Structures are given as structure tokens and as C-alpha cells.
Amino acid sequence: MHMVPRITVEVPVLSVGSGTADYEKLGSYVRSLRKQHGLHMTLLHIGVLDDFSQDVSEWTKGITSPATAASRTSAWLQRLPVMGGFSGQAERLIVLGGGSVCGLEVDVPQSVRDFQVSLVQALHELLAELLVDNADDFILSSRALGFRYPRWTPHVAVGIPQSRRSGSWEIQPVTIDFGASRIRNRQLLPAIDAEEGIPSAD
To answer: What is the pLDDT of residues 76-85, one digit of tens each?
Structure first.
């Protein structure tokens, strides 16, 4: 089944522990351990842009069209500030997504938590611009955004838990280095005119 790429604000994982062996040890806790290259931590999930735009249009009863929502969201995403790289530490694995995902819970600097909060605040500002009322209710109900928990848990998804029951497992502490924040699948967004802040005609 073909999955449409999702748009997120994320930070890429540059390294886990002192080498490949440290990461591969996690294979004793999870099934289908993901390749270390490509691991990331999601700061804000937008989802499929067309789905998000449709959610906005339905919520506003058509006052904001899907096309308007898509173009303004694209411009907003590309104006977001970039956070520099940082390091965190993981000491346990946790089960997420109703038991379908196993991830490293990461202790991150306060500045990272502050940045993530600023992204949520910026999302509220975007929704106001899109004429979405009751933004908190919209965020929790939007199928595209997929917010299920009011509190952000910094984590790096690494595989599938051995069983679907909830829980956590202590591991040997590892340091995780992250790169600067980026927009995942940014290349799929419409090009933006740098001066006007609107989608280009190309």
C-alpha cells in the first residue's frame, strides 16, 4: 500500500552512543530494529498536507478553501525558525502508538522543549490565520495532525515492541546527538516566493 509522505518538523539523529554496536544492542528489546541512518525525533507533526488542508476546510465550513489552507501552510512551514543541533540522553525504551512503536525516551535540554512549545504556539497562529476557531479542539480532532497526547514526549522510534503491552525497559544510558531542525519532505511543498511569501507560479 502506497503511503503519501507526511510533513513534520524534526531533528535527525547523527549518532547513538559511541558507535554502531551501542545501537544494535537495542535489537534484544525490539523487533525489526530500524536502520540507524534515517532515525529522527519529531517536534511537530503536520501530516499529509492535503489531508490537513481538507480538515481546515471542513472545520471552517468552507470559509477557508483547501487550496488556501495548503498554500498558507506551505509558506508558514518554510518561514519557521531553525533550531541548532544538540545532544540528549536515553536511559529507557518506551512503548508508543498504542503498542505499535518502541522508542528511546530522550532527556533533552530545556531549550529543545521551549522550541517545541514555540512550534505549537506558531501552529495556533497559523490556525487563526486560516480562520479556525477553537484551535485546541481542532488540533486534538484533526485526522492529519494526529495529536493523541496533550504532552510531548521526546523520543526516537527505533522499532516494534516484542509485545503490544505498554511499559518501559531500562537500558544502558546512551548519548544521542541530533542535527539542526528541518522540514521532513520539504521538497514536496510548493515553491515560495521569497519576497512575497506566496507560492510561485512555477
So the answer is: 999 999 999 9
Domain interval for residue 142:
7-188
In this structure, what CATH number is given to the domain that contains residue 70?
3.90.1140
d(CA 99, CA 18): 29
Residue 57: other Cβ atoms inside 10 A: 19
Per-residue pLDDT tens over the stretch 50-87: 999 999 999 999 999 999 999 999 999 999 999 999 99
Residue 196 lies inside a defined structural domain of this protein: no
CA distance 141 to 164: 25
Please report whether residue 2 resides in a domain.
no
